[in-house]
Amino acid sequence: MNLFTAGLDPVLDALFRIGLCAVFLGACIHKARDLNTFSATLGDYHLLPAHLSGAAARALATSEAIVGVALLMPTLDPLGPLGGLGLFALYSAAIGINLARGRRHIDCGCTGFGQVPQTISGMLLVRNAGLAMLAIALLVPAAPRPLAWLDFVSIAGGLILGALAWLAAHELGRTPPPIQEEAS
Hints:
With 184 residues, the protein is mainly α. Helices cover 66% and strands 0% of the residues. The longest helix is centred in the last third of the chain and has 26 residues, at 149-174.
């Protein structure tokens, strides 16, 4: 079966949509809970004039909410996947510019729910690229196959595994490099 002629399997379509929706709505909630802190984080990137940080913080949180909801409504395609790609590109550009400037101390602004802040790194660019690939896959129409009960079990299992992988990767990305001892 050729992915591009038969369409994306509906199980993968559901997994990618729900997973990306969770990422965007979680990010939106994190930002909306404390827009002032997120505005300050945006200011730390030094990409916008300081007086625009507050409006940009609200715009990004709103955009994430719109993309998250649009991903759950395939009738709005390609708004959800393209909006997600746009946000991943925007975030990756902001991170990449600051990494190129040597500014690695900046909080990424993506940590939420009481977790320790995470500084920007190349791993965030890899993560964003992986998430962008899921959004690109959603641009392929889903195959016209009805979902059976086993498909719903597969979707639930896939979401659990995806969440665990996400948490593990997030923690690994935050782990500081090992301390190297000086040679005597």
